[in-house]
Specification:
This protein has 429 residues and is an all-alpha fold. It contains 16 helices and no strands. It is 78% helix and 0% strand.
């Protein structure tokens, strides 16, 4: 990665955007934080989005009807996110009180890494084992992000949060894309299922390795008050959560954002988790599916950075709205795809908005959090994310199972972006 010289958090309106000038000479703690995005994005690309869903459909679920295997995958994704959602706020509050963000990050990263490595042992017809490991890996992945995100507000000054968040997503796109490209070669060059199994093992090592910099080089944020033992912290976190549930509606903008995010992230998450399954059910081959999703990764790098720059010019809310309007157009297009090049074009378009919309959402939320309560409130951010992820895949799976029509299931997703736009526009400032 080429890094530029001086940091300029806000480009002038007349300044041309250059990817090479976007990155300052990143401090050790910043690139270490970004490195975790490089690592965990491999799970998002290879396991959640590209190779593992197709492997499940074509190998692990052998013997199941196509619509049933799609439904089982969707239901399991919903169940894993449901379990994550309920634990997120409590774990977030516990991390704030006890000062254990990094320790909990390490624990749940370990759960995700171990589950992913075990996927290499899944063979034909092992659909139940495949679903169990997918659920465990998803729980490790999703909960670890709470504590990773909670490190951001204390990492840099407020005026740099948008950019660093976007940089993290850009590095994540790069990392996830590089490993996905390598795994694509594994599948293309190695016989049978060896390439796919090796790709699952590579994700475990990649994720585990790139998690080390943030654990060693990023300081644990200071605790607001004295550190306490686990039992005391647990009781305190429960009381704190009860108080926060009562208080959160008083933070009007923050509350509205969480509701809006609940809806539109439902659509984004469902697209990520179901794209490969959707394409496979339409008869598009694994090579085209993986190649198109690989394209999404590399398209996402410059566009994630561009969204960070756009947010500095237009503001975070307007930038997110642009992304959501674009998503609505993509939903309409997705209903009519039937050929491999359609899927490639759609993948390119998704890459233009996916990372940028999520990155600016994260930094926009961070800007509204009261001081000293980052992990707790990111727990609520995460619970909004997880609960949104429950409904979308479940609806997709149910409609597909009952009607046998995946395009119909895709079309219904439009409600998530429409409601997200309506509520987001109500946020003041």
């Amino acid at each position: 990665m080429i890094l530029s010289t001086d940091h300029n958090p806000h480009l002038s309106h007349g300044e041309e955007f250059h990817m090479l000038s976007y990155f300052p000479k990143l401090e050790k703690k910043v690139w270490s934080w970004c490195a975790y995005d490089v690592g965990n994005s491999a799970f998002a690309t290879t396991i959640m989005a590209a190779i593992y869903p197709v492997y499940f459909r074509e190998v692990a679920s052998r013997g199941l009807a196509p619509n049933i295997s799609t439904a089982y995958w969707a239901y399991t994704a919903s169940a894993a996110l449901f379990l994550s959602a309920f634990s997120s706020p409590l774990l977030g509050a516990l991390a704030d009180i006890q000062g254990s963000k990094k320790r909990l990050l390490a624990i749940f990263t370990g759960i995700g890494v171990l589950s992913t490595g075990c996927m290499a042992f899944i063979g034909p017809g092992d659909w139940l084992l495949a679903l169990i490991l997918m659920a465990a890996g998803t729980i490790g992945f999703t909960i670890s992000i709470i504590f990773y995100d909670a490190l951001l507000p204390s990492l840099v000054p407020p005026e740099r949060v948008d950019r660093v968040s976007a940089q993290g997503y850009a590095f994540g796109y790069l990392g996830g894309g590089v490993l996905l490209a390598i795994n694509f070669l594994f599948i293309a060059l190695l016989p049978g299922t060896i390439g796919a199994r090796l790709s699952f093992l590579s994700v475990a090592f990649w994720w585990g390795g790139f998690s080390l910099p943030v654990l060693f080089n990023v300081a644990e944020p200071p605790v607001d008050g004295e550190r306490v033992d686990t039992n005391t912290a647990f009781r305190g976190s429960v009381k704190r959560l009860k108080k926060t549930f009562r208080e959160i509606r008083s933070f009007r903008n923050l509350f509205l954002f969480l509701v809006a995010f609940w809806f539109y992230n439902d659509g984004i998450g469902t697209i990520i988790r179901m794209a490969a399954i959707y394409g496979s059910q339409l008869g598009i081959s694994m090579n085209h599916l993986v190649g198109a999703l690989l394209l999404t990764q590399f398209v996402g790098i410059p566009f994630s950075l561009a969204f960070g720059t756009l947010a500095s010019h237009m503001g975070s809310k307007k930038t997110i709205l642009i992304g959501l309007y674009f998503y609505l157009c993509l939903i309409v297009a997705a209903v009519f795809i039937s050929k491999p090049w359609h899927f490639w074009a759609l993948a390119f378009s998704v890459g233009m908005v996916q990372g940028g919309t999520q990155a600016i959402s994260r930094s926009f939320f961070a800007s509204m959090i009261p001081p000293g309560r980052t992990a707790e409130f990111f727990g609520f951010y995460d619970i909004s994310s997880k609960f949104s992820g429950i409904l979308g895949p479940a609806i997709f799976g149910f409609i597909t199972q009952v009607s046998g029509s995946s395009p119909l299931a895709i079309a219904i997703l439009s409600y998530t972006f429409i409601l997200g736009i309506v509520i987001l526009r109500k946020i003041e400032g």
